[in-house]
Amino acid sequence: MRSKLILLLAAFLLSTGWTIRDLGTLPSGGLSVAQAINNGGTVGGMAGNSAGVMRAVWWNAAGVIHEIPTPVVPGRFSTVYGINDKGAMVGSMGTPTSDAHAFKYQFGVLTDLTAPSTSIAFAISPSNNIAGQWTVAGTPPRHYAVVWGGGTAGTPFALGGFGGWVDFTYDVADAPVASGTAALTTGKRHAFLYISGAMRDLGTLGGSNSFGRGLLVGTWPDPSEASIYVVGSSEITPGSLDSRAFIYNSGIMRDIGTLPGCTNTTAYAINKSKQVVGNCWGASGAINRAWLWNGVTMVALEDLIDPATGWTHLHVAYDISDTGKIVGHGTRYGQGRAFVMTP
Length: 343
Hints:
This protein is mainly β. Helices cover 4% and strands 49% of the residues. A hairpin with a 5-residue loop joins β2 and β3. 47% of the residues are buried.
C-alpha cells in the first residue's frame, strides 16, 4: 500500500505541469533572493558576492544574473524590490552616509532617489510611479508613506496617514491608487488604500494590526471600485500576533486561509487573474512555506514541484506575474537560492 501511495504522489507531482529554475547567485557568492518579476520574465532581487555582501541584482529571462552598480559599502546591503514591464527597477541601497537610500535603475542608469533623507522604494508602476517610505529625522523620526511621481529624484509626494509616525507605501498603480500601511495615534497599524486623494483605513480581520501589501487595479476610473484589490496580512484576535493573509475588495476584507501547521500567513502580491502569493510559518519556529492562492484554495508551492529537482523547501513567494510565473526564495541542496516557477 505504501508503495502505491508513493507512486500516486509522484504521478500528481509530475502532472502539475510546474517547472522551477534555480536562478543561482553571483560568482563565488552564497544566498540569493528573488523579490520581483515583470511580464517579460525579468527578475529582480539580491545575491551574495564573494565577500558575503548582499548586492542588488537582476536576472534576464534566460536566467543570466547581472549586478546593479550600487555603492559598495562595508556592512551595508542593496536589493531590488520592484520592477515594471519597461525594465525599470527600484529598491534600497546602502551609501557612505546611510544604510537605506531608495534607487531606480533603468537602461544602465542608477538614480539615487534620496537627498539627504533615508528612504526605501518597494514598487514601480508601468509609468514609473514609485511606492515607498521617506524618513525625516526628528524625535521620534517621521516615516512617511510616499510616491515618487514619474520616478524622478527629489522629495516625493506624501500620501498622508492616520496620525501615527511609521507609514509606508508598498504598491502603486499608474492611476492615483496605492496600498500600504499607516500607524494610528494608538501605535497600532492598519492597511490602507489610497484613492481619490485620500487614505482609506481597511481595518483588520478582528485583531489589532493589519498590513497592506500588493495592489491590483483592473480599470480606472471605476466608480464602483470593483476592479481594485489589496492583499496583505491581518491579526485575527485582539492581543494575539497570529495573522492571516487577506484580500480586500469593494469594502470587504476577506481571510483567504492558511496551510496546515501554520499560525501566521502573509500575502505579498496579486496578479490580474487574482492569483495571490505569499508565505506562512508556525508559532514554534517551523520553517516558512511559500504558497499560491487561486481564488478558492491555497497550495504549498513545494507540492507543485518534483522533489528530484533538489529543492527541499520553498520558503517565500514574493511576486507573481500576470503570466503566472512566481519568484521567491527557497533551499536547494542546502543552499538558499532565488527561484522562478513557471506553470
